[in-house]
Design a protein that fits this description.
The protein has 357 residues and is of the alpha+beta class. The chain folds into two domains: 228 residues, P-loop containing nucleotide triphosphate hydrolases (Rossmann fold, 3-Layer(aba) Sandwich); 116 residues, OB fold (Dihydrolipoamide Acetyltransferase, E2P), CATH 2.40.50.140. The protein is 24% helix and 33% strand. α2 runs parallel beside α4 and α3 crosses α4. The protein starts with a strand and ends with a strand. The relative contact order is 0.12. Bound molecules: adenosine-5'-diphosphate and magnesium ion (MG). Adenosine-5'-diphosphate binds next to α1.
Length: 357
């Protein structure tokens, strides 16, 4: 295991014009960490991972493994294990032959190879499957073979690019737990790419949220969820209401804003919020931090229900407050609540948080 550092890394593709696929990215990943690149399609996740693997070289910037500068080193000289979305297995070869691939390239001897293949298949809970053909295995099993093939070379970093996207929902949830277990047991630094925020939160020590080639925020799942840096992060991680509210007074880590009913409330803000009285603040509040109450309750916002959706665990509602739709996820909703009802909304003011545009 090893720490991985990206310093001001950018990648421009010749044919893609002036826009950078990856734009001035700084990331420090600790040895043994499970680190995820998360963002919508096209934001630069795969390009970033391929630069760590050595399949692409950065246009500018540096990549280090520990103190070694690997920026322009070819993939086979980096000791990275890579797992791709489509697994990239050889379908007519056996499981053992597929897993052996990286060992052959490294000219590992026959006896040592056999031992390491058994070990890798054991790690992914496929002991005894060495002689099966790939096309006789389920999608989930193929995914584990791909993992074993990456692990068998005892990589310093394990790189995974959307490895679960070909699996159905239930298997995806089971397999994400498995990947995390395997990574912990192997003690390898892992860099994981996904566009699925639930997957990222469930698996990662830390997450970098990317948008348009740039890293918008790096943090632990809880931090990114509760203290999103920007409106994009707030909306991309889970769901969120981002309200435009007038700033009444602004202090170091608190901003007092006006609410649609004319009342005021203090909201926590990052130290460098840069807001002043008279500005408009963007305030994020999660649907689960709004509760439904009577429209006459003191301090409640009032609005009209425009959507109601019962999901079992919670009821999702949209309530129009002063012309703006507000999403609410409520565990307890009075029976008979329907579109058109006038309701009160109780804000959990401790959970409101100022974000950047
Ligand atoms: P993600 O993995 O987040 O979906 P990618 O890293 O694949 O995003 O792509 C980021 C951007 O770079 C996209 O606009 C994509 O079209 C572009 N891109 C990726 N690979 C190449 C390439 N080989 N040549 C030209 N443009 C590319
Ligand atoms: Mg990709």
């Amino acid at each position: 295991m090893i720490d991985v550092t990206l310093e001001s890394v950018s990648k421009r593709f010749a044919r893609a014009g002036d826009t950078a696929a990856v734009d001035d990215v700084d990331i420090s990943i600790a040895a043994g960490e499970f680190f995820t690149l998360l963002g919508p399609s096209g934001c630069g996740k795969t390009t970033t991972l391929r630069m760590v693997a050595g399949f692409y070289f950065p246009t500018s910037g540096r990549i280090r493994f520990g103190t070694e500068d690997v920026t322009h080193r070819p993939p086979n000289k980096r000791d990275t294990g890579m797992v791709f979305q489509n697994y990239a297995l050889f379908p007519h070869m056996s499981v053992a032959q597929n897993v052996a691939y990286g060992l052959k390239i490294r000219k590992v001897g026959r006896a040592e190879s056999a031992r390491r293949i058994d070990e890798a298949l054991g790690q992914v809970h496929l002991a005894g499957y060495g002689d099966r053909r790939i096309d006789q295995l389920s999608g989930g099993q193929q995914q584990r073979v791909a993992l074993a093939r990456a692990l068998v070379i005892r990589p310093r970093t394990l790189l995974l690019d959307e490895p679960l996207s070909n699996l159905d929902a239930k298997l995806r949830e089971e397999t994400r737990v498995e990947i995390r277990r395997i990574q912990q047991e192997a003690g390898t630094t892992a860099i994981y790419v996904t566009h699925d925020q639930a997957e990222a939160m469930a698996m990662s020590d830390r997450i970098a949220v990317m948008e348009s080639g740039r890293v918008r925020q790096i943090g632990a799942p809880q931090e990114i969820y509760h203290r999103p840096a920007t409106a994009f992060v707030a909306r991309f991680i889970g769901r969120s209401n981002v309200l435009d509210l007038p700033v009444v007074t602004a202090a170091a880590e608190t901003v007092t804003v006006g609410l649609p009913d004319g009342s005021e409330t203090a909201v926590t803000a990052p130290v460098d919020h840069g807001l002043r009285a008279g500005d408009t603040a963007l305030v994020s509040v999660r649907p689960e931090h709004l509760g439904l109450t009577s429209p006459t309750e003191a301090g409640a916002l009032t609005g009209r229900v425009t959507e109601v959706e019962f999901t079992g665990m919670a009821t999702n509602l949209v309530v129009e407050v002063a012309g703006e739709p507000v999403q609410v996820a409520a565990i307890d909703v009075p029976a008979g609540t329907a579109v058109g009802d006038q309701v009160g909304l109780r804000l959990n003011r401790q959970r409101m948080w100022v974000v950047q545009p």
